[in-house]
């Protein structure tokens, strides 16, 4: 009986040591990040009365191509120089190219001059025109210490029956942020997306009308 005492003490010491290690390990594990998920604010534009007859044409809007950095749900910021970062604890509901595609689709539907609007790439229902492009900027840039939202979209309108690009144009907007907090940044993204859509819609209609003559 007495011979087993050292062994019992050894086992007890090992158990205490193991428990201590487990507690230490738990204390150094990183805490999970609490995320605030933001959608692009609802469009603030009011529908404009159509000044021309409605087009008897349909349009498909493709999700823009973008870099791996931009094609994400992170809310990007360039605080200085060329270093790209992201706002901590905040995410978009969808990757930036999807957010822009959906905002453009909403603007075209509100305008109402195409007889049908659809989303997607080259598959799906046949349409008369396809709006494709590259999203090369969807981020906040600090300029003279103040945050400014930048969105840049290189658009191309393709006539489906010929599969030929009939017009291309770069659209770029800069929208000052009224503050530096994330909700204010999100509001500025919404305003910038509205401004960009307000330029893309009439340009697309103009090019589609010219191609149909």
Give the structure's gist in a few sentences:
With 213 residues, this protein is α/β, with parallel strands linked by helices.
Describe, in plain words, how this protein is organized in 3D.
- By secondary structure, the protein is of the alpha/beta class.
- It folds into two domains: 1-30; 38-211, ABC-type transport auxiliary lipoprotein component (Rossmann fold), CATH 3.40.50.
- The protein contains three helices and eight strands; from the N terminus they run αββββαββββα.
- The protein starts with a helix and ends with a helix.
Topology, element by element:
Elements: H1 5-28, E1 36-38, E2 58-61, E3 74-80, E4 83-92, H2 96-111, E5 116-119, E6 129-143, E7 146-159, E8 164-176, H3 182-211
Parallel strand pairs: 1-4, 2-5, 2-6, 3-6
Antiparallel strand pairs: 3-4, 6-7, 7-8
